[in-house]
Design brief:
The protein is mostly helical. It contains 14 helices and two strands; from the N terminus they run H-H-H-H-H-H-H-H-H-H-H-H-H-E-E-H.
């Protein structure tokens, strides 16, 4: 529907974010706009490795296609992740006046090594600052046009930037550095627990807020150079559709004819890391199917981190596993996925009743 004459159409916002109130809505708006940068950058880096090998982005390979793809992914797309996150958190809070101070605050966070945590802080600071100034600055009608293009960006950016440099940046950078060090040094029980949590979260609502929270956290850590959580998230997210597809073959009497036919499609969706392929099965019998999915995904995530699997690509499922250097410990990744898939299938077969 077109806007009436003289009206300006409102900028589109993610529907899921619109339905959530307060800070969560603003955070998820930022995450929704950030994820395309993560996916595009990650896949371009993977393509760089596929085309140019493990050293594709080394300075000695300048001028090659692999080096060019790596530059686009790592130096351009990944460099915009934190500014995009901060800018669109601020946009969600203050609308258009928040974008410039939010993105500039996000760039400062990246330059101060405060990473995605600093970006989140910058987004909220910029958004609430811009909104406060917009509501309280009153100008004559002849000067009102200067407010959105000059006064608000200047004042909100100045306040956000000074707070990031003098107040927020250093402590947040220290927190992020400590978190990064801990995640990179995970072994034994800590890796097991984190893998259980991240993998299980991917299966709780299959594309809903809990799933998105786990994915967004792993994607943000991936941009900070921590690539183990993404392995747990992707393998945990692939497990539900694959497990259900296997269950329709192992226990056909537990499923209706239409569900058995849908098993093949679920297998394809699971292979492509589209967790939503499990939703029709879960919707039909949530009390039995969802716990089975969570169990299998938790096993896949826990095994992935315990076995030292890492993943440098944020999407693609099975289709990115053969790309050189995209996965560390490929046999461990395959083992974790197979184990999680089998646990899901067996749990569904044990818990699910025959259709009436």
């Amino acid at each position: 529907m077109q806007a009436a004459e003289g009206e300006t159409a409102a900028p589109a916002r993610p529907e899921a974010a619109e339905r959530k109130p307060g800070a969560y809505k603003h955070l998820m708006t930022g995450v929704s706009f950030m994820l395309p940068f993560v996916v595009a950058g990650g896949l371009l880096i993977a393509l760089a490795f596929a085309v140019g090998g493990i050293d594709a982005m080394a300075p000695g390979h300048a001028g090659t296609l692999g080096y060019a793809l790596g530059q686009i992914g790592a130096k351009a797309a990944f460099a915009l992740i934190v500014p995009a996150l901060a800018g669109y958190i601020a946009y969600s809070i203050a609308d258009r006046p928040g974008i410039a101070p939010g993105m500039i605050g996000g760039m400062l966070a990246a330059n101060l090594q405060a990473g995605f945590l600093g970006g989140i802080a910058a987004g909220f600071i910029a958004g609430y600052t811009a909104r406060f100034l917009n509501q309280h600055i009153r100008l004559p009608k002849t000067l009102e046009g200067l407010k959105p293009v000059l006064i608000l960006p200047l004042l909100a950016t100045t306040i956000t930037g000074l707070l990031m440099i003098y107040v927020v940046g250093v402590p947040v950078a220290a927190v992020l550095a400590a978190l990064t060090t801990w995640l990179k040094g995970m072994q034994g029980a800590s890796a097991l627990v984190l893998g259980l949590v991240l993998g299980g979260m991917m299966a709780v609502d299959m594309g809903g807020p809990i799933n998105k929270a786990a994915y967004a956290s792993a994607a943000a850590l991936l941009s900070s150079g921590v690539d183990a959580p993404m392995a747990a998230v992707m393998l945990g997210g692939m497990t539900p559709p694959l497990g259900l597809a296997l269950a329709t073959r192992l226990f056909p009497v537990r499923f209706t004819v239409s569900e058995r036919e849908a098993g093949g499609a679920a297998a394809v969706l699971g292979a492509a890391f589209i967790t939503e392929g499990a939703i029709p099965f879960a919707a039909a019998d949530p009390l039995r199917v969802i716990p089975s999915l969570v169990a299998g995904s938790a096993v896949a995530g826990a095994l992935a981190l315990t076995l030292g699997v890492t993943l440098k690509v944020p999407h693609g499922g099975l289709f990115v596993l053969p790309i050189p250097n995209a996965v560390t410990n490929l046999p461990g990744a395959i083992l974790a996925l197979a184990a999680g898939t089998l646990v899901t299938a067996l749990a569904v077969g044990l818990l699910k009743r025959r259709p009436a």
